[in-house]
Amino acid sequence: MTEPNIPFTPKEISWLSFNHRVLQEADNPDVPLIERIKFLGIYSNNLDEFFRVRVATLRRIAKLEEESDNILGYSAEATLREVNRIVLQQRIEYENIYKRLMKDLAENKIYIRNEKELGPGQCNYVKDYFSKNLAQIIMPFMVRKENRLPTLKDDAVYLAVTIRHAKKTRKVRYALIELPTNILPRFIELPGAGDEHNYIFLDDIIRLGLKDIFYVFKNSNLVAHTIKLNKDAELDIVDDISESYIDNVNRSLSQRKVATPVRFVYDREIPQETLNMLTERLNFSKDDIMIPGGRYHNLKDMIDFPTPEGAEHFRYKSLAPIKHKDLDPGTSILSNIRKKDILLFFPYHSFDTFINLLRESSLDPSVKDIKITLYRIAKNSNVVNALINAVHNGKSVTAVLELQARFDEEANIYWSNRLREEGVKVIHGVPGLKVHAKLCLITRYKGDNIQRYACVGSGNYNEETAMQYTDHLLLTSDTKITNEVSKTFAFFEKNYKKENYYHIIASPFYTRTRISRLIKNEIENARNGDEAYIYLKLNNLADKDIIELLYMASCEGVDVRLNIRGMFSLVTGIRGVSNNIKAIGIVDRFLEHTRIMIFCNKGNEKVYLTSGDLMTRNIERRVEIACPILDNDIKKELREIFDLQWNDNVKARILDKKLQNVISKNNKPPLRSQVEVYNYLKNKHESPEPAKEEQ
């Protein structure tokens, strides 16, 4: 179906545009100061993952040469060159923003000192800190020609130390020191005068202690420069019935440690001979991605930059969770769900509601079964604790735990073992598919009657991310939904037992045909002169066939509005192709993670919540669930939230064909959607009486 020449932006290029929106927030003076520093850290962390996954994949595909274009639909080599160009360009902007932030901190008496800027008292403090906390754990590796270079860890920071004899200047030695950020914080507070707050990078404490580390090399000059590698982090998992799934993943994780480097970042002040030695030993060539940077790397640690005492105004104020009008305090959540579908919107509503639902289910004598999908689990998971408690209370609990949650595989293996030890039935996904659906099914037995309650969401059952990501969770007892959620769990237990779905849209079996049908329906309505529109709020839109259908819809006059956070391969603003398609992307305090699809359907709107994006992987190689909203009040709420976000003129950027990330100005009073959504939900759900009681 797909024409080879339809306008299409490589998803890697569009993703870099998304990360640039994150960088813009770091440079936005209207954002609280330490939150700006946090955005700088988020940008850095995002870029690391991008290289470990997307760039690593591009490099693999590029090796296939002529076949690569057929796999991607665009040139892997050309995209890699463009990625390198954009990253280097953004690196300059990043460093300039970093300098401005350091200046802004200093203007507010918050200083980050290096080892050469310390007063006598601070210098003594740092030396004492080094002696007590670092001297015994720093283990340098001497880099010699006859020595094999150690396997450098992915995403760790190293100090490349150049040791030059003061008199015999040609006598040069090299060493590597790994920063122990897994043991100690990256930022150490120093004593300061009056109302000053002083910090130092852990890197610089080690720099100050170099002579104590390398005391055996007398009469030597010592300098240290940071380097960092990103490695290919894709898991090569080959389905093999002769070995367990966990063993398979464990083997792939061990291979990740020795994976191919995909990016080498270094301090541009590093001596050329040291750089040459390292790149030669790492087998990097001029064609590989090598990024010259500043003095410090792994600035993702900025995410955890400390908030000095008295500087709380440099952080966003916490939002009080909104009480849901359909959840009466002190009453059964299950009984409330029986009365009416309930939509929770995190982090505006509290995730505690879901924990309380699991707790109630573990105590209710009529509840016999709890089934749940788990993808990314919180470090200290109350969800897991509630499931274990349910087992202890005699319930049958099944957890479909997807091991291939990228970068969380080791944690998920731990949780898998823990759940099994406690008596939970654990299913490790479906061979050949990644289980990404967000489902929970609670079954009660009242005499001969079976009552099912389903939770269907856009985000993980994770109380930590529920405070940082925007996600919807639908709670329903409607049999149209609960029976089909039950079929989905049957599919997990009996792989590839394909069921018929009449309401839910399930990947990998039905999503392409059902979404295509919904879009074609709007095209047909537009041709017949009826109102026709398609409104999508997603994380990513990159499937070529779906994009082509949206172009067709645009050409027929369908109003297409797209709110896309990340990868966005559709190209807007092309005459005769995408005239009627407008797109925005929102980056703000919370990570936009909700996924909503709205189709006009001649005025009888069809509205879906979905766990998956419109990407080929989500449609064809994952288990995803798009759930129809059957409650008219919730339909109205989701439409009004979509409209609020669409009218954002503070944090929304226009996604034009050049991906310039210009703020979506509309000549109206400022509207920041995350603030207005909170106010909207508060007005809708909290009556004046409870609000007075809180005060």
Written overview of the protein:
The chain has 695 residues and is α/β, with parallel strands linked by helices. It folds into 3 domains: 304 residues, Polyphosphate kinase middle domain (polyphosphate kinase like, 2-Layer Sandwich); 161 residues, Endonuclease, Chain A (2-Layer Sandwich); 190 residues, 2-Layer Sandwich (Endonuclease, Chain A), CATH 3.30.870. Helix content is 37%, strand content 21%. It contains 20 helices and 27 strands. The strands form 4 sheets. Strands 14, 18, 19, 20, 21, 23, 24, 25, 26 and 27 form a 10-stranded mixed beta sheet that branches. The longest helix has 32 residues. It is globular and about 90 Å long. The C terminus is likely disordered.
CATH class assignment of the largest domain: Alpha Beta
Give the C-alpha Rg: 27 Å
Distance between the termini: 60 Å
How many domains make up the 3D coordinates?
3
